[in-house]
Amino acid sequence: MSVAIVRTRAELRETVASWRKAGLKVAVVPTMGALHEGHLSLVRAALERAERVIVTLFVNPKQFNNPEDYASYPRTEADDAAKLAPLGAHMLYCPEPEEVYPQGFSTTVTVGTVSEGLCGAFRPGHFDGVATVVAKLFLQTGADCAFFGEKDFQQLHVVRRLARDLDIPIEVVGCPTVRETDGLAISSRNVHLKAEERAIAPKLAEALRAAAHALEGGAALAPIVETTKAAILAAGFSKVEYLELRAEADLTPLAAADRPARLLVAAWLGATRLIDNVKVLPE
Ligand SMILES: Nc1ncnc2c1ncn2[C@@H]1O[C@H](COP(=O)(O)OP(=O)(O)OP(=O)(O)O)[C@@H](O)[C@H]1O
Ligand SMILES: CC(C)(CO)[C@@H](O)C(=O)[O-]
Ligand code: BAL
Fold first, then answer.
1. How far is the CA of 72 from the centre of ligand 1 (A)?
2. Are both 32 and 166 inside the same structural domain?
3. What is the CATH number of the domain that holds 198?
4. Range of the domain at 255
5. pTM score > 0.90 for this model?
């Protein structure tokens, strides 16, 4: 079994039109490739909800605020196609940058509020790049539903708001973070971790879990944030960009775990930036 690889908007449109004519429900799973179990969990969820599943693979230059990060982003298309085939995904859409951004392309989609703070504060332009390409992928595929991981929790909110604000008729489905057995959130960028860094990396999730547990037990937020940041640095991380409690439903800042909340973190381990988040239940 193999997955059909499509590289042009014209072929994408033609195939989706034939599916629509047959009355089939269509799902899209946007990715930047280097597929791992996190991505595959989204594809499995999509296959449960739709009769045709399109996985998109596009390393989107507009969302990289750091050119080195763009250059070194893992590109493994043949392996990705081989991983998708046994699952039964129906199409891998892999456009070239000129297909997505033809000469003269001049539109940027900016989603306010939920793009601000957290990763938005440290990756200028990143969520504009994400929102622009995701709007295009939603419109190009015309899918009924789209699947995104909670690992990129702020991105999930940006994409939900984008679809709602622009009246794009698509259901955005969030899926739980898939972790390695030691707790590290699986991410394509984990391949950049050196062996000694890989041994330290799970301490990020461990520190988050401990903080969530303390907050659920009624501990005050400010001291927990300070001790958790200190624990992450003591484990060997070089910098904690943010560690913040936000409302689960709309990402507004919270002063205490008084509503279903998320504790979100970004931290540097050597040259690799890791993000993670955990749910915090009310006391
Ligand atoms: N561990 C995971 N569990 C669930 N979903 C995930 C996981 N990792 C990535 N995803 C989701 O897969 C989709 C594509 O993400 P992407 O291709 O950027 O992979 P990634 O592993 O997040 O890579 P990176 O963070 O290094 O860019 C996003 O919706 C993302 O949230
Ligand atoms: C949603 C996405 C595919 C847009 O390029 C990307 O941000 C990602 O892989 O999470
Ligand atoms: N995984 C979200 C996309 C990015 O980090 O660029």
1. 16
2. yes
3. 3.30.1300.10
4. 188-280
5. yes
